[in-house]
C-alpha cells in the first residue's frame, strides 16, 4: 500500500473536491460544436442574464442548456445555500460523447454514413 489506507485515500480525494455548485448532462443529443455556440454566449455572465440569453436563443441546444442551467442554480440554492443574486457562470464546456452511426442508402447501391454526435455538457457556477 503505497498511499496508505483506503479511508485515508478517500479523505484526501474528498478534501481536493471542487466545492462549486455544478450540473452535468451526459449523452446530450447535441453536437459539441453546436452546444459551444450557446455556451460561449453565457460564459462569465450572471445567472439571470445567462438564463435570459438561453431562453431567447433560437438554437435547439439552448433548450437543453437552459434546463441544465436551472438545475445548477437549484443545486447552488438547495445544496450549498447560496443566493441566486450572487451567482454567475464560472465554467461551462461540452466534451465529445459517443457517436451513433447510421446508414443512408444512396445511388448505385452505395451506403452513405450519417454520424449522430452526442456531447457531455457541464455548467459550473460560483459566487461573486
From TrEMBL:
GO terms for cellular component: cytosolic large ribosomal subunit. Residues 1-24 are annotated as: Disordered. CDD domains: Ribosomal_L22. It comes from the Bacteria. InterPro entries: Ribosomal_uL22 (IPR001063), Ribosomal_uL22_bac/chlpt-type (IPR005727), Ribosomal_uL22_bac/org-type (IPR047867), Ribosomal_uL22_CS (IPR018260), Ribosomal_uL22_sf (IPR036394). GO terms for biological process: translation. Residues 9-22 have a biased composition (Basic and acidic residues). Keywords: Ribonucleoprotein, Ribosomal protein, RNA-binding, rRNA-binding. The keyword Ribosomal protein applies. One of its GO terms (molecular function) is rRNA binding. Belongs to the universal ribosomal protein uL22 family. This protein binds specifically to 23S rRNA; its binding is stimulated by other ribosomal proteins, e.g. L4, L17, and L20. It is important during the early stages of 50S assembly. It makes multiple contacts with different domains of the 23S rRNA in the assembled 50S subunit and ribosome. Part of the 50S ribosomal subunit. This is Large ribosomal subunit protein uL22.
Amino acid at each position: 500500500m503505497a498511499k496508505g489506507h483506503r479511508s485515508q485515500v478517500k479523505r484526501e480525494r474528498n478534501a481536493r473536491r471542487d466545492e462549486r455548485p455544478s450540473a452535468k448532462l451526459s449523452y446530450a443529443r447535441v453536437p459539441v460544436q453546436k452546444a459551444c455556440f450557446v455556451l460561449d454566449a453565457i460564459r462569465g455572465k450572471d445567472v439571470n442574464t445567462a438564463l435570459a440569453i438561453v431562453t431567447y436563443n433560437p438554437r435547439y441546444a439552448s433548450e437543453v442548456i437552459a434546463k441544465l442551467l436551472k438545475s445548477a442554480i437549484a443545486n447552488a440554492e438547495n445544496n450549498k445555500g447560496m443566493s441566486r443574486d450572487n451567482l454567475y457562470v464560472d465554467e461551462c464546456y461540452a466534451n465529445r460523447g459517443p457517436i451513433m452511426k447510421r446508414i443512408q442508402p444512396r445511388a448505385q447501391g452505395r451506403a452513405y454514413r450519417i454520424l449522430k454526435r452526442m456531447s457531455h455538457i457541464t455548467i459550473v457556477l460560483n459566487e461573486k
